Amino acid sequence: MHQDGTRSLAPWQHDHRFGLHRRRGAERRTGTVAIITLVTMVAEIAGGLAFGSMALLADGLHMGSHALALGISALAYVWMRRSAGDERYALGTGKIAALSGYTGAILLLVTAASMAWESVERLVTPKPIDFGWALVVAVIGLIVNIVCAIILQRRGDHAHPHDHGHVHGPGHRDDHNLRSAYLHVIADAATSVLAIVALAAGAYWGQVWLDPAMGIVGAVLIVIWASGLLRDSSHVLLDRAARMSVREGVRRAIEKDRDNRLADFHVWSIGPGIYAAALSVVTHHPQPPDHYKALIPDSLGIAHVTVEVHGCPEGG
Predict the structure, then answer these.
(1) pLDDT in tens, 122-141
(2) Closest Cα partner for 28 from 101, 77, 93?
(3) Which of 137, 170, 174 is nearest to 156 (CA)?
(4) Domains, in order of start, for the chain
(5) Phi/psi at 263 (nearest 5 deg)?
(6) Least packed by Cβ within 10 Å: which of 24, 159, 227, 242?
(7) What tens digit of pLDDT does each residue of 186-197 get?
């Protein structure tokens, strides 16, 4: 009770941070990978300028685009965490991860377009290649990207609701920000592997044309991966309905009591592994909203639930 005799509304108010105010392992790992990529970029550019190697210089500049994308992913986690309690975000800051993932996908498409353009240009107008230095650069790039991929794949953070949110581990497929960072690393690793194959074929068998050809193959792979991320992250940004497994899980949980029927319900993503739901329940024996909320298992990740209850007359 307040001093003026009115009751506090605290028992009916919700925490909209959904656990995102805590520092997550994904944030630390993405930051580490961004720093590794940045250091590698600086080393390759410095080496290219010092030794007059265009291969080192070009790969360093290429690493710069990935360092930018990984930096965006790392900053997105910081923004998401520090703004988690900001009331201007109606349902928390979880969608920042999707926004960062969408941006990362766009950057991947730009990288693919640049690769394809340069590769076609090299096919039409071949240029001499220093196979020795180019192979060294490709191998170094592959090693760095394997290390970064291992770092990003590590799991460990798993927050539970009863801060009203079930936040899945960082490797969860709904974390589009982490997925963006991982795809940038994998895309770079894939192009390094293709480059090593092409350069070896050019150095030992004289198949110089394979170098730009593999560039086109790499660009196609990146477009395929980026398109999937673009599609999935845009679904979150546009409040598209959650996966069928999540929606049907909510329906089964509520309608397990044969007296309950969902006249209308919506479930959508509001962050990495975090969902909101709006339910309209029709029943002969209405219960308080909290009764229906408690029927939904934590494993579905439903962090915010709004329930309407409608009484149906007997025989209706």
Answers:
(1) 888 887 777 888 888 888 88
(2) 77
(3) 170
(4) 11-237 (1.20.1510.10), 244-311 (3.30.70.1350)
(5) -75, -30
(6) 227
(7) 988 888 898 888
Q: Diameter of the chain by CA atoms?
A: 89
Can you tell me which residue has the tokens 């949980």?
Answer: 253
> Is 293 within 8 Å of 306 (Cβ atoms)?
no
Tell me: the pLDDT tens digits for 160-177?
Answer: 343 433 333 334 557 899
User: Which pLDDT band holds residue 312 (cuts at 50, 70, 90)?
Assistant: confident
φ and ψ at 136, to 5 degrees?
-60, -45
According to the model, what pLDDT value does residue 136 have? Answer: 85
Phi and psi dihedrals of 275, rounded to 5? -130, 155
Place of tokens 């996966």: 243
Q: How far apart are CA 192 and CA 132, in angstroms?
A: 15
Which H or E run contains 150?
helix 131-153
Q: Which of 186, 212, 188 is nearest to 198 (CA)?
A: 212
Instruction: Please say whether the beta carbons of 246 and 301 come within 8 A.
Output: yes
Name the residue type at position 179. R
**Cβ atoms within 10 Å of 248's Cβ, excluding its own:** 12
Two tokens, residue 104:
């990362």
What's the confidence (pLDDT) of residue 316?
Answer: 55
Candidate from 62-71, 116-125, 129-138, 182-191 with smallest mean pLDDT:
129-138
The pLDDT of residue 149? 93
Spatial distance between the Cα atoms of 279 and 305, rounded to a whole number of angstroms: 8
